[in-house]
Amino acid sequence: MGETAPPPLRFVCLFQPNGVFPPAWDLQAPTLDAELPPILRPLTPHREALTVLKNLDNTGFGHVALTTAFLTGVGVKDRRNAISLDQWIAQRTGEQTLLPSLELGTEPPRPGGDGGQPIAYANTIAWNSPSTRLSPEIIPQAAFDRLFRTRIDPAARRAAEQRLSVIDLVLDDAKTLRRQAGLADQARLDEYLESVRSVERQLERSLTAAVPENGAMPRADLVRPLAGMPQDRQAHLRLMMDLLVLALQTDSTRVVTLMTAHGFSRQSFAFLGGITSDHHGMSHHRNQPGLVSEYTRVCTWFMEQFAYLLERLKTTPEAGGTLLDHSLVLYGCGMKDGNGHVPRDLPLLLAGKACGALRPGKLYTAPPGTPLSHLHLTIAQQFGLEMTDFNGTGAERLGGLFA
């Protein structure tokens, strides 16, 4: 009997909008042994799994620019960006799973503009081409269906087979049209054809993927969520985290991004009690004690939810350890202090051991002014991508971060 293949390395990224209040985030010691600062305190039970990053700077100004640069190192300019880190990794790992990547969120896009760019661009950190952003799925049932419906529901399977037949006809017609088109139209058709082929590949994988039979995962976990958007904010975010864990556990994908809220979020946190400002409003606190208190409480709430995810990953066993041991989880914001959209020294955490390549439980301090793209390049290389730069940013590997 052959040996069981070791668990694969997974990449997870969670984005939190509107920054943090720096005095309530910054470590006062070079290790994680002392009491953690207020915002990070909910992560105390998981400190041995954390690597806190310091001195990494984003590029751009404003919510749209800093959100869209979070995984690209570039950010939107003239409505174009670059391929994001998660999608570079998905290009390498995606052929081995049902979905190359999974994009999750909790808040719909918003209308309006910011810095000359549509605010809607700030609803995602995932871009699979300079012109194509991947909007997150915010409905739990729809996310579940993408992962499992064709594997457990015969009617959904038949529908997928019918869609695949239609796609074959579309591709045949488009190929004929391409032969008759000029060069400019051919380029536009090629981009369209690639998007259609991407859907075709996903449907084919959904029809050949096996029903999850992971012995460590009770089949009860495959209960389909109710339709619609949960009204309870915490229940909604935690349900998306549960789906994230299921997606990794069943090897349905190895790359997941989760927008904990829109990058320009104005959500109310009145449910926490005593909070009167919306999230964006309190982030522009002007050092007023009342707003600082609200801002810190909301940031701490996000850390409480992150602690929930880490507990789920840490208590999900698999060969040779846990799901957290075999994952690299990046958590952070596109700005430091929301009061001035400060792009320097971002609040960033890594969690997990990356299959033994990361030795957590420490503070990693980069030289002041280190571009965030250095982290992108370092993580990309850790996933086996043969890069010497990242999206033309002049990135360099962060020495000593990984073993």
Give an account of the 3D structure:
- There is one protein chain.
- The model is unreliable at 213-220 (pLDDT under 50).
- 34% of the residues lie in helices and 14% in strands.
- It has two domains: 10-138 and 232-382, 3-Layer(aba) Sandwich (Alkaline Phosphatase, subunit A), CATH 3.40.720; 145-228, no CATH class.
- A seven-stranded mixed sheet has the order 3-8-1-11-12-2-13, with helices on both faces. A two-stranded antiparallel ribbon has the order 4-5.
- The protein is globular.
- It has nine helices and 13 strands.
- With 403 residues, it is an alpha/beta fold.
Chart the SSEs and their pairings.
Blueprint: E1 10-15, E2 50-57, H1 63-68, H2 85-93, E3 102-104, E4 113-114, E5 117-118, E6 127-129, E7 132-133, H3 140-152, H4 154-179, H5 183-208, H6 233-249, E8 255-259, H7 279-283, H8 289-314, E9 317-318, E10 321-322, E11 327-332, E12 348-351, E13 362-371, H9 373-382
Parallel strand pairs: 1-8, 1-11, 2-13, 3-8
Antiparallel strand pairs: 2-12, 4-5, 6-7, 9-10, 11-12
- The sequence of SSEs as H and E is EEHHEEEEEHHHHEHHEEEEEH
Alpha-beta content class: alpha/beta
- Separate helix tally: 9
Strand content: 5-15%
The CATH architecture of the largest domain comes to 3-Layer(aba) Sandwich
Distance between the termini: 32 Å
CATH fold assignment of the largest domain: Alkaline Phosphatase, subunit A
Shape: globular
Strand order of the largest sheet: 3-8-1-11-12-2-13
User: Would you identify the regions where 5 or more consecutive residues have pLDDT less than 50?
Assistant: 213-220
Q: Any idea what the radius of gyration is? A: 21 Å
| Beta strands, count | 13
How many distinct domains?
A: 2
Q: Provide mean pLDDT, rounded.
A: 88
Q: What is the CATH class of the largest domain?
A: Alpha Beta
DSSP helix fraction: 25-40%
**Largest sheet features:** 7 strands, mixed
